[in-house]
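Lay summary. Proteins are chains of building blocks that fold into shapes, and those shapes determine what they do. In this project we predict the shape from the chain. Here is one chain we studied, written as its sequence of building blocks.
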Amino acid sequence: MHPPAPETPRAETPGNETVKERLNSLVAITVAVLAAFMGITKVKDDNVVQAMQQAKINAVDTWGEYQAKKLKHHLAEHSLTQLDALQLVAPTNAVPQFKALRQGYEARVIRYEQEERELMAKARGFEAEYDKHNYRDDQFDLSDAALSVALGVLATASLANRRWLLVLAWVFGAIGIIMGLAGFFRLNLHPDWLVNILS
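And here is the predicted shape, written in a compact code that computers can read:
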């Protein structure tokens, strides 16, 4: 009796690949694509956050300048009131001096009112800029969240060997990519209801 001949190993071909191997290949490709996209959106989101911080700093500084101007305005108005009171008891030869002082304070009041309007408009402009950046930051945050969920589901799909989990991961991945592209291209895509829940 002859010993059995050793089996020759079969060459691996795509047709011989098991279902699990195919699933793991799809998971690996999806992870690579989503991770690369996340890396790119993270860089852009960090730049948006820096712009938000700068806009907020500018707004706070401008409102502070506005308050200082408002205080000077009130002091000038208070000085006018005091001048009026002093003029009642001052000798008549001091009237020209009071008139010159009054004109100076009135000019200051007019100047401060103008500067206050300009500072208010400037501060509101910085606040609008902050809101614009915050809108985009929300888009990137939602993208990051959806992509993170997709990566978590992908790991489970690979471990559990479930194709429907791969499909679910693709759905979350697609949402993440769409929101990331909306942030990149400044698209008007912003699920306010979801942002309000997560805020």
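What the prediction tells us: DSSP finds four helices and no strands in the chain.
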